[in-house]
Each structure stands twice: as C-alpha cells, then as structure tokens.
Amino acid sequence: MTRDLASRRNRAAALQQRRPAVPADHTETLPLVTVEWQGEKYPGAPYADGAAWELFSALPRPDFLPNSRPGGDYPYRHFVHASEVLRDGVPASVGDDQALTVPLAPGIDLEFVRRLTQTPHLDPAARALLDSVRRSAPLAAGDVLERPVTAAQIARLMETAAVPGGFCYRRWDTAHLRTPSSRSVLGGETEPGDRWVFALRWPAADGADYDAPVAPDYEGLTAMPSSDRRGMPVLGTGFAISAAHLLPEHVTADLTDLPLPEGARLVAYSTSGAEFPMFAYAGQQWAPLQTERSVEVPGVELARAHRVRRVLREATRVVWNGIAGSLVDADEEWARFRIARPTPDVLSRTGAEAVRRGVYEKWVARAEVAPVV
C-alpha cells in the first residue's frame, strides 16, 4: 500500500524536534541527585530524556568505569536503565509514557518477566503476558529507534538514504548500553576488543512500519542454524537475549528497508562509555558533527559533508518464484531480492545469504520478479 512517506518523514522529524536530544556525554557540571540502585545509594544524573541514569562513585566498584570527564569528585561511573533506579523510593521511570510496565499479580515481577523473555516456545499464557508488556509501550511516530551498524554499513549509508531493514530497538530501551561490550546484546557484528561500535538512530515515521519478531510470523528466524545466521540468535519472544536487561526487539515490516527520515544520526560508542555524534541527516546530506578525533571509520571522511546519491522513496514489495520479499537494488537485468519471511527451507530453496541479523538476500534475474498485486 502506497503512503505519503515524505509527509510522514517530516512529521516524525517535527516530533523529534519537540523532544530534543540531551547530550550523552556532558562536559559541564551535572546537577546530581541521590538515587538508589541495587540497594545502595549513589549520586546520579538522568540522560537521554530520562531513559537512563549515570551513577557516580568516589571509589572503584564492580562494573563501574573510569569517569572520562576531567576533574570532579567522582572518578568512577556506571550507566543503568531508569527502570532499575529508585528516586525517593519509587522507580525513576514511573511517570514516563515510554516505560514498559508489568502486570501486577502474585509471583510476577520484572525478573520473572525477563526470564520469560529468554524462554523460546512459550505456552499461550506466557505469550499473552509478554504481549501485554510490549503493548504497554507501543511504537509511535517520533519515537527514536536505533540499530547497530558496522563501519562498512556506514560507508554505504553515505551513498543511500535508507534505514537498513531488519532488527532495531527503541532508544528508550537501550540508552544505558554505552560500551562495545554492553551493546553486543543488540545482535550487531561486534568483535571482542572493539574500541568503537556504531549505531544508526532515527525517528519512526509510523509505528505500523514495524513488527514484533515473534512466532508465528517470524518463527522461521528462530529455527536458523548458526551456519545460516549473522549476529545473535532470534528467540521469537520479541525480546533480545540478555541475562540482565529487558530489551524489546522490533523489525521493519517484512524486513524491508525504509526511507531515512530527516533528523537521523550516526553515533559512536567507546570502551569508556562515551557517546559521540558523528553525522546528522537532512536535505539528502550527511552533515558532520563534533566528533572525538580518535574515532575512525575506514572509507569515510568524518570532517566533511556527504551528499547522498540514491534516496529510497518507498519499499518495493515483490514476489520471486512464489516467495514474498522486497527489492533492495535493481537494474534492467538483475535485482537484489530480500526475503520477507526467512526460514531454513526457503534458504535451502533460494540459496540466499545472510547479510545482517535476520536479513537474507540474493541476486535474481529482473525478469523473474513480479510486483505484489
């Protein structure tokens, strides 16, 4: 179904402007308040519109990082989600309409729900519980989404204005993940020892552009053997694999690419927990932002603007040999075909290859591709 994508992108950008981003790594003096985390009290400050908190300590503690700000009374810091922090005895996220909520019932708490999210093949009652948790904070126009990207993918984004389809996350749910090691749970192609990892961040134009990656619709992804997938396995619960966090996953509907909205950003994360903006997208151009000099993206000049040559206007849904999918690229003879519902059987029949987590593509003859009627 064709939509007025240009107006929706503009609306998403306007909504994002009404909710301005807070600098992720302050250099000014922070207004600290006392909060409680895991039974102990710490001085802390919220960031990312209150989605997460930065906690401070004068002494080294497990999981705390050296504080990269010069000076100050607290040489150590730690990042936690707002749902884990108590302020004046109540969760810091209690008044946020983006916060996930857990139904109140005997034996049900946040840890019980987190364990369910890590359990494949749920019974109907457990599935209904997780669905209700997800519905407590549905995606809406203007919500900030992000997905891990590699340096090679950044180089391609400089040329093509598309949100790479597949798995993504609400910024509100991931704001506390600030290092390469902590962000590995998001299923990106990180390697142990990486000094920097990257993310594409954009405002959603319409919540209907995204699905929950749950069975039965995306059940085929849960059955993929390790030899046929990239990144973390897909549980099918609608949540990422994590021993400590509640991380709802989203996928672009039918795993298609979407037009890149105005206001999209590329950011880098360091081992120190610092977050550096690199580029902002507007007017078919990536404009450089103030960036840490030690950040390097092979093949991309960080200090200059990059004009996008190809702009995606809308997803092109097609059928190839009876299999539903979309076109990623095409010329008169060949087309890059992406499978809408990957399964092990479809992969064996098509010979498609994994290009990202959950995304499978192959080159096919253009004459064999038919538009969806």
Walk me through the structure.
- There is one protein chain.
- The chain folds into 3 domains: 19-91, no CATH class; 113-311, no CATH class; 316-371, no CATH class.
- Helix content is 16%, strand content 31%.
- The protein has 8 helices and 25 strands.
- It has a 9-stranded antiparallel sheet.
- A hairpin with a 3-residue loop joins strand 21 (323-330) and strand 22.
- Residues 1-24 are annotated as: Disordered.
- Residues 12-24 have a biased composition (Low complexity).
Estimated radius of gyration: 21 Å
- Structural class comes to alpha+beta
Shape summary: globular
Q: State the domain count.
A: 3
What is the end-to-end distance?
10 Å
Mean pLDDT: 89
The total count of helices amounts to 8
Question: Percentage of helical residues?
Answer: 10-25%
Contiguous runs where pLDDT drops below 50 for at least 5 residues: 1-23
What can be said about the biggest beta sheet?
9 strands, antiparallel
* Strand order in space, largest sheet: 12-13-10-8-11-15-16-17-18
Can you tag this structure with a few keywords?
16% helix; nine-stranded antiparallel beta sheet; alpha+beta; 373 residues; seven-stranded antiparallel beta sheet; 31% strand
Give the topology, please:
Blueprint: H1 5-18, E1 33-37, E2 40-47, E3 52-57, E4 65-66, E5 76-81, E6 85-87, E7 90-91, H2 110-117, H3 124-135, E8 144-149, H4 151-157, E9 160-163, E10 167-170, H5 171-174, H6 180-183, E11 196-203, E12 210-211, H7 219-222, E13 250-252, E14 258-259, E15 265-270, E16 275-282, E17 285-288, E18 306-307, E19 310-311, E20 316-320, E21 323-330, E22 334-339, H8 344-350, E23 353-356, E24 359-365, E25 369-371
Parallel strand pairs: 9-19
Antiparallel strand pairs: 1-2, 1-6, 2-3, 3-5, 4-5, 6-7, 8-10, 8-11, 9-14, 10-13, 11-15, 12-13, 15-16, 16-17, 17-18, 20-21, 20-25, 21-22, 22-24, 23-24
